[in-house]
Specification:
about 210 residues, alpha/beta, Rossmann fold, 8-stranded mixed sheet, two-stranded parallel ribbon, 6 helices, NAD(P)-bd_dom_sf, Putative NADH-flavin reductase, NAD(P)-bd_dom
Length: about 210
């Protein structure tokens, strides 16, 4: 498939690019600064564009079969929602339907999965702006009219890619509230060929 990755130089986005290439996909990596991408591959195209500007994003989506959004800004708010809204507009212009968007466990109806610390201290206080940003991001995706999947990973670790994790669990599941960035990338790429995930927002955790 031809896959465009938005947020390609982020901690998850880099791994999405690498793993997508390993899986045989052709990848267009969108970044503000092309010098931040060291990977060289015959199936990799690097496009320098502002992820908040649909005018700049639209050419990067030409010929894409799917778009993976892996935007992040730490504890800051604004980039995830604004960037995703710009991507949605660019997808409409380019005629691309499939959108896979990384959000966070705890957003929307997944909040009951969180423990007291994450619900009230992290997302309630320390990461309040980031949490609100994800809420706006998810609302934009749901209202987009596209063929979307929202992926809600738990807290990131720097562990290896295992392929051994829980996803789409209910509130009775016993989860660690942790997941490696490599396994997040693994799951995001897996949704490219998974039609059963359309219009769903699965959680992701060990």
């Amino acid at each position: 498939m031809n896959v465009t990755v938005i947020g390609a130089t982020g901690t998850v986005g880099r791994l999405v690019v690498e793993q997508a290439l390993d899986a045989g996909h052709a990848v267009t990596a969108v970044t503000r600064d092309h010098s931040k991408i060291d990977t060289r591959h015959e199936r990799l195209t690097v496009v320098e564009a502002d992820p908040l500007d649909p005018d700049q994003l639209t050419p990067a989506l030409a010929g894409a079969d799917a778009v993976i959004v892996a935007l992040g800004a730490g504890a800051k708010g604004g980039v995830r929602a604004a960037g995703t809204i710009a991507v949605i507009e660019a997808m409409r212009r380019a005629g691309v339907r499939r959108l896979i968007c990384q959000s966070t466990l705890g957003a929307g109806d997944s909040r009951p999965h969180l423990n007291f610390w994450w619900r009230h201290v992290m997302f309630g206080l320390l990461l309040r702006k980031a949490y609100a940003d994800h809420e706006l991001q998810e609302a934009a995706v749901r209202d987009s009219g596209l063929d979307w999947t929202i992926v809600r990973p738990a807290a990131f670790t720097d562990g290896p890619r295992t392929g051994n994790y829980q996803h789409g669990f209910d509130t009775r599941a016993s989860i660690t509230l942790k997941i490696s960035r490599a396994d997040v990338a693994d799951y995001l790429i897996g949704r490219l060929t998974d039609e059963s995930s359309l219009h769903k927002a699965p959680g992701l955790s060990y």
